Amino acid sequence: MKIETERLILRPFSWEDIDDEFSIVGDSETMSFYAKPYTRDEVAKIVSKNIRTFKDSGYGLFSVIEKETGSYVGDCGITLQIIDGEEELEVGFRIRKECWGRGFAPEAARAMIQYGFEKLKLEKLYSYMAKDHHQSRRTAEKAGMTLEKEYRNPRNRDIITTVYSISNRDEQGSGGEG
């Protein structure tokens, strides 16, 4: 299974993605808004969990591949997260720092939103990030999400966290591409 956009191919995680994913989530600059970068063992567990979740539920992290080069540029997907004490389905995205500023994150996020609404029949999706993570906030906004609330996140150094959301009704009403 794969999802194609104008410039990207998104496909569910596979075991072959561990090294590429580690090069992103193991990088301290890329992960500066997270509690800490991931170890290679943690990445293997994430890949394993997402392979299982995708088989069971149809969602999880997808590998983001640039069509033109075939290069692994990051991940994007729908995952179950604890957001302000509630379990919510979140559209998350992480892009290799060499590819920042090229619009890959919002392009992938829009594809995931469309997938969530059209294929999974979800009613609402969220994204959350540190309040001062302006790049991620812009990505959520470019993907059609709106700011819903802020809260202090005990799961990430007690930082102020912003929550964006989009509902299936918003998407239908906007005539957006998802």
From TrEMBL:
UniProt key word Protease: no
Annotated keywords: Transferase
SUPFAM superfamilies, A to Z: Acyl-CoA N-acyltransferases (Nat) (SSF55729)
Record-level Gene Ontology MF annotations: acyltransferase activity, transferring groups other than amino-acyl groups
InterPro entries: Acyl_CoA_acyltransferase, GNAT_dom, N-acetyltransferase
Pfam families per the UniProt record, alphabetical: Acetyltransf_3
Keyword Membrane: no
Lineage top rank: taxon: Bacteria
Domain N-acetyltransferase: 8-169
Entry-linked PROSITE patterns: GNAT
Gene3D superfamilies: 3.40.630.30
UniProt name for this protein: GNAT family N-acetyltransferase
